[in-house]
Amino acid sequence: MQYLEKVRNYGPIFKPTLVFAVCLCLAASSFAADKPKEWNTGHVIQFDKNHWTSTGGSTTDGKVDKDGNFHANTNQTSWGHDTYYLTLDGGDYIYYTSRTLSLRWQKDPQITENADIKWRLDGNNLILMGEKGKEFKMKLEKKRKK
Known about the structure:
The protein has 2 domains: 1-33; 40-145, no CATH class. Helix content is 21%, strand content 53%. It contains 1 helix and 6 strands. Strands 1-2-3-6-5-4 form a 6-stranded antiparallel beta barrel. A hairpin with a 2-residue loop joins strand 4 (116-122) and strand 5 (125-129).
């Protein structure tokens, strides 16, 4: 019973605080709403791919034979990378971009050279809309005014 009396006593303070907190959350969520993405249409001037391999790290296996001699086997680890370079005519500017894919699950952008493409700028990145409708982020290396 004493607990219920304490809760009732906090009622006048609790209700306005709760209303204020709910209003604050609603206001914050309306400001945090994403702006619609504005896509531009540009022309792919050049699209290249460079495959390269890097090595690093090593694993060493060893065993001792029956005479007590140690025999070691060292293998270096290597993995492949694909670097994509794209030159885009974006209207007032020519954009030069690149992106290196190093992980197996990263997919190539599916872009056709000498074709129109949807794109947008996002800070220092140029986001492209691939032929299958997937976004592909590339680093903006250089921008040249026409």
